[in-house]
Specification:
alpha+beta, 3 domains, five-stranded mixed sheet, 14 helices, 15% strand
Amino acid sequence: MGLAERNTPRWRRDLALTACCAAAVAEADRTGDPGQRAARLIDCLGVLRSTHRAGAAAALDMGALRRGLRLGLAPLLPADGEYGDPLGEMRLLDQDGLLCDAVEDLGREHLVPQQALMEYWPWARLRAEQEEQQLYAEIRRLPPEDYAKVRELLASDPVAEQDVLWEKWGGLWGRFGFFEPVSSWPWCNVAGWCFPCPACAWPMRAQSAGGGVFVVSCDAHLLEGVQYTCRQVRRGSGPPALEGGGWSADRVKGFPAAGDYLAVSRTVWRYLTLPGRMEFAIRDALTGIPGLDIFMYPDGDRYDLRITAADPLVAKQWRVDAKAWRSFTALADALLERPVLGGAVPLTIVVPHRQRSDLPLLESCLAGRPDLEVMTDEDIVGEVRRWCRGES
């Protein structure tokens, strides 16, 4: 990387994010040598300070770093964004000092140039490409019908007993390593029971709040009110009773954290299950409207849905690609690397409605690409319905 590419606001922010993730990993590591752990934290703090202007850097000390990892990244990220930083409220460590899932997501989505990382952290290992693309590459070799079936199964049944999965997957079962035994996931286990999120059906995280009380919530849908509490019960006495603590805490049924229950890995859940549920929800919400044709994964899955509204005078088409990324900045980078799709119809990037407040940031990043537009899943359904009613 040349000097001209360094010290840009984007470079400083990515470097700060990487420093925060590396610091969180070091802070959560209680098994290694304390001296090495302290040295890694000092290294991370030094890199973090280098991303801030002189006045702000002076206020960053080890206490501020540790507080930011637990309470929110806003004080740790350089303040260069026009819209503020949507990752400012993200926490990388929970109240017990354990790593939050956000660290893994950011590690996949934000890639700081290898040379920049190696300059500060020779021990760091950086993934060379997005794991999302690796997942898609595994299944894109399938015939179109099998591809669509796999995508829908990963969206509709991210957790089930192995016999159920065998029956649903048929001859496709065993060809992909998408599932893992939930018995190996202590983070979602309360007295031998797990609970699926009512919004995405994936096991929710269970975190001790002390006094035998657990907080059970979905990492992706917490902002939508998917949160519960329960009390520890004696093993073998049945599932703990969940008490809804959020406005979307619908009733859920627990399942045993036993070896015959399997769930998709976190990577599959984040980049296939979550966007897949959006895709099929959009399809289902629009199915049955007269004159509307919906085709899943057209043109070899260059995008997710092609929606065509037939009209005697004017036909309207939407090309939709659903994304469930945490970081809109990283998503914008990935989208800008894609070739222009071509044609008069723009590609509509659809994100979860819960991220609607961050749309101006994504729109700003994509301002130079008129072939790309962005909206939420609820907005695209509303737009298509209005068009079909003759209101557009």
